[in-house]
Amino acid sequence: MSSAVLTAPALPRSTRVLPGFTLSLGFTVLYLSLVVLIPLSALIINTLSMSWEAFWTTVSSPRVVASYRLSFGAALAAAAVNAVFGTILAWVLVRYEFPFKKLLDAFVDLPFALPTAVAGIALTALYSGKGWIGQFFEPYGIKIAFTPIGVAVALVFIGLPFVVRTVQPILEEAERELEEAAASLGASRLQTFVKVIFPTILPAVLTGFALAFARATGEYGSVIFIAGNMPMVSEITPLLIITKLEQYDYQGATAIAVVMLSASFVMLFAINLLQAWMRKRSSKEAR
Q1: 103 is in which domain, residue-wise?
Q2: What is the pLDDT of residues 16-38, one digit of tens each?
Q3: Is 144 contained in some domain?
Q4: Pick from 41, 84, 143, 211: CA 20 to 30 A from residue 271's CA?
Q5: Contacts 24+ apart (CB under 8 A), 172-175
Q6: Which of 228, 159, 122 is nearest to 239 (CA)?
């Protein structure tokens, strides 16, 4: 008596929703080149047409150096403030329930949707000498608007969502069982945060910090209204670039832009290396 062998129908080797690798890679490279690489290459090529002496004279003049100091210093300070308070805000939104929570969560994205000019005018009205907030500092000789402090305040405003929206998903996916296990083993709240929670969210915090810093270094619209734009005091680098463009000094504008681009790239590259090292370290500890 013969037995029949039933065989299942052969399945295709792969079922792809999107086109193949070659076409997808070609489209990706083309799109990235049109949007990012070609404009940046044009910026660098235009700068290379300058002599080294002209380039160095442009980017190292006292007025330009003062604008670097303000732009990068205020951006760094604002990103650090957002890294701390943005993480706390993300923690509150994830771990607690309270009235109007969804409304507060929506307000976090307001700097994304609000036109930068509107944000600058609103902040100037609040922090000027006669503003709702600035009037309380004016009697003590503390001026916020039209000073470097006002620049930092504006950069904190526009950079906060980057930290909150980067840390928030990580906190939502974090395993609370590890926190409960640490508490059951006698760990204090501080020890639980330092040993369990902080290593988990640190890569996200660094990413949010880098994004907030990169956005703040190039911010223009919300800053020019509250900065005062005084040379050597409260003049930011993007405004100096606009000024040189209005004077038809295109090479000078691109030279300053290349310096800002290089500094931002180095910052982001360093953050990415740090994140890769932390992920490698955490994977080794998990084993």
Answers
A1: 42-279
A2: 666 677 888 888 888 888 888 88
A3: yes
A4: 41
A5: 172/94, 174/200, 174/201
A6: 228
